[in-house]
Design goal:
The chain is α+β, with helices and mostly antiparallel strands. The chain has a single domain, classed as Jelly Rolls (Sandwich), CATH 2.60.120.330. The chain is 24% helix and 21% strand. The longest helix has 26 residues. The protein is globular, with a radius of gyration of 20 Å. The N and C termini lie far apart (50 Å). Bound molecules: 2-oxoglutaric acid (AKG) and fe (ii) ion.
């Protein structure tokens, strides 16, 4: 097995149990009602109301759910999956030609830290908007912006095109989900859409190679997603674990062919004034098989100030957070994935009112 870099080793309390608890409970929600051309009939109204109720229950209970009949074409998903496999099969030298650096956080890298421990994975990130504007530094007084541009590799030559097609399709699903979540919070369907103009969303191709020490390391350490929503395609290997709210147990999300796994991020937690919570999750790796996954992080514009929506604040439920700037948080997080540092990552609890 050889020596494994000690930066991969998790503290004892965070090491995974290799016996799997697979939950029956993480809901699978059928979105076919939304594909119907005639959404305004009485039957459809009823179906929509029950769909919204399912979304609400899932968000309350788990913070996670899977969707089927979501409208993203399987062909499109298969194409990006294949291109991703071809890219990661290249040599490290080839992949590092499109490596991310301090100035551009998009591209390839294999040294991501989650809570200061290295993840057993390699990734390729690309943005939705080109360019994507974010603050240059996370200092609140520094108003300078920078442009993120995706660095596309030469191989496989179709990568850029299939990624761009995939984003188009997943975007449509993101807005459908955002609208369902809005309705489920008692808001108008499009209440949150405006925050996603000039979005800082990005897609990540993840590759988790087989790991000789799956009991000591993690593919991704425990974390919560900071943005609005995450829409994840996982393959048939499995490894994603979600912290169950009722008892804190780590529950494996069962791979379901052609489904997407959805979770609400910290941003929706704050907008909802803690009506919904962003739930901790992690990825367990295994010694035999490599795993691939593709999360889409649906994030607001850098100039969005995140705070509880006024409709969800009242005397009984005062605002639980002070407003913070999304761009500043995004830049802070990006820099900390990059460099080991002593201070804690910036988290929403730092903005508790
Ligand atoms: O690969 C997965 O299943 C999940 C990855 C994840 O949680 C993330 O990249 O934020
Ligand atoms: Fe995540």
């Amino acid at each position: 097995m050889g020596e494994v870099d000690p930066t991969f080793i998790q503290d004892v309390e965070h090491r995974p149990k290799l016996t799997i608890t697979e939950a029956e409970g993480i809901p699978v929600i059928d979105l076919s009602t939304l594909n119907s051309p005639d959404i305004s009939t009485e039957k459809n109204c009823k179906e929509l109301a029950s769909l919204v109720a399912e979304v609400k229950n899932a968000c309350k209970k788990w913070g996670f759910f899977q969707v089927i009949n979501h409208g993203v074409s399987l062909e499109c998903r298969e194409k990006i999956d294949l291109a991703s496999r071809k890219f990661f099969a290249l040599s490290k030298v080839e992949k590092r030609r499109v490596k991310r650096d301090e100035l551009n956080s998009m591209g390839y890298y294999d040294t991501e830290l989650t809570k200061n421990v290295r993840d057993w994975k390699e990734v390729f990130d690309f943005t939705v908007e080109n360019p994507t504007m974010i603050p240059l530094s996370h200092e609140p007084d520094d108003k300078e912006l920078k442009e993120l541009h995706t660095q596309w590799p030469d191989y496989p030559p179709e990568l850029r095109e299939v990624c761009e097609e995939y984003v188009q399709e997943v975007q449509k699903l993101s807005y459908k989900l955002l609208e369902l979540i809005s309705l489920s919070l008692g808001l108008s369907a499009k209440r949150m859409n405006g925050f996603f103009k000039d979005q800082t969303s990005f897609v990540r191709l993840n590759h988790y190679p087989p790991c000789p020490i799956p009991h000591l390391a993690l593919g991704v350490g425990r974390h919560k997603d900071a943005g609005g929503l995450t829409i994840l395609a996982q393959d048939d290997i499995g490894g994603l674990e979600v912290r169950r709210k009722t008892d804190g147990e780590w529950i494996r999300v069962k791979p379901t062919p052609d489904a997407y796994i959805i979770n609400v991020g910290d941003t929706i937690q704050v907008w909802s004034n803690d009506e919904y919570e962003s739930v901790e999750h992690r990825v367990v790796v295994n010694s035999e098989r490599e795993r691939f996954s593709i999360p889409f992080f649906f994030n607001p514009s850098h100039y969005t100030w995140i705070e509880p929506l006024e409709e969800l604040v009242n005397e009984k439920k005062p605002a639980k957070y002070k407003a913070y700037n999304w761009g500043m948080l995004f830049t802070h997080r990006k820099n900390s994935n990059f460099k080991k540092r002593d201070d804690e990552n910036l988290q929403i609890h730092h903005f508790k009112a």
